[in-house]
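Ops channel
N.P.: pipeline sanity check, posting one input/output pair.
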């Protein structure tokens, strides 16, 4: 019998949340090997902080691999002979959480933390067998999604994100959890409607013209992490065959994701997207000389 991967915690309303399963005898088994008989199932939208190891384990289990994925990479900034890290599929991020280099590792020493998470995931699969997994991160967002602070009640106002600025439309910066059951913030709704009208009247026709001319423009192609994306780029992401043309980018120094406004030619629409900073992408960028060398990463914004 397959087991669903669920959130578990000792505290009912706050604390640390882990991903794991409840076996037939109600024994909790987590992806990070945390053991406690007091672990119990909790909801999806609570005030808990998710265990970092479990967060990476969920990425391992739910992210499709990138084409040409390497089995081992060195840490970013380290030599090729440094410790070899196991990459999370589709990411330039190790099982241990370290940002990784694009190159293949040649060192014989393996990262102990990467090996530990590998063993705990193997133990989870070995005891639980087939797992029913939650959906992975979508390559573009639902435009009607509302966001609230963690653990917010059903009567809380939900806000819409403006991916061009990284904030909500009304300027609120606290909401970080999707909450489709919340009441919509009136200020966000009014400003979002104005922005949507502008997108339909001006941005969409302009992007149709730019996309039609894309095939004849001179551009370079390279693979890099999502943090390098710039306005005017086109990127592909594992798990989606659609090309994403970047209309606007918003970065925050301490955020784990990059907020994007993208044009999807296959669906002929403008959409919002959130991509993990260390997601490995196939990027095309217009260059005057057709160079395929990636530009230096832009300075992180405060």
């Amino acid at each position: 019998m397959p087991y669903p991967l669920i959130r578990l915690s000792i505290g009912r309303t706050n604390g640390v949340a882990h991903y794991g399963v409840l076996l037939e005898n109600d024994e909790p088994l987590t992806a990070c090997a945390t053991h406690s008989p007091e672990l119990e199932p909790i909801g999806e939208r609570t005030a808990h902080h998710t265990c970092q190891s479990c967060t990476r384990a969920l990425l391992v289990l739910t992210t499709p691999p990138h084409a040409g994925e390497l089995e081992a990479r060195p840490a970013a900034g380290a030599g090729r002979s440094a410790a070899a890290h196991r990459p999370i599929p589709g990411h330039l991020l190790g099982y241990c959480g370290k940002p990784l280099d694009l190159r293949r590792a040649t060192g014989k020493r393996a990262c102990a933390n990467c090996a530990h998470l590998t063993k705990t995931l193997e133990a989870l699969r070995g005891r639980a067998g087939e797992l029913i997994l939650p959906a992975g991160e979508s390559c573009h967002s639902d435009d009607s999604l509302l966001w609230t602070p963690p653990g917010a009640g059903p009567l809380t106002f939900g806000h819409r994100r403006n991916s061009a600025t990284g904030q909500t439309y009304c300027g609120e910066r606290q909401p970080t959890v999707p909450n489709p059951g919340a009441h919509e913030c009136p200020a966000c709704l009014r400003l979002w409607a104005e922005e949507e009208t502008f997108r339909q009247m001006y941005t969409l026709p302009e992007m149709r013209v730019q996309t039609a001319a894309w095939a004849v423009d001179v551009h370079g192609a390279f693979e890099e992490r999502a943090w390098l994306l710039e306005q005017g780029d086109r990127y592909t992401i594992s798990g989606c065959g659609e090309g994403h043309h970047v209309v606007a980018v918003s970065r925050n120094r301490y955020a784990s994701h990059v907020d994007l406004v993208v044009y999807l030619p296959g669906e002929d629409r403008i959409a919002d997207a959130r991509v993990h900073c260390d997601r490995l992408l196939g990027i095309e960028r217009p260059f005057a000389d057709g160079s395929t060398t990636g530009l230096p990463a832009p300075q992180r914004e405060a």
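N.P.: looks fine end to end. The radius of gyration is 21 Å.
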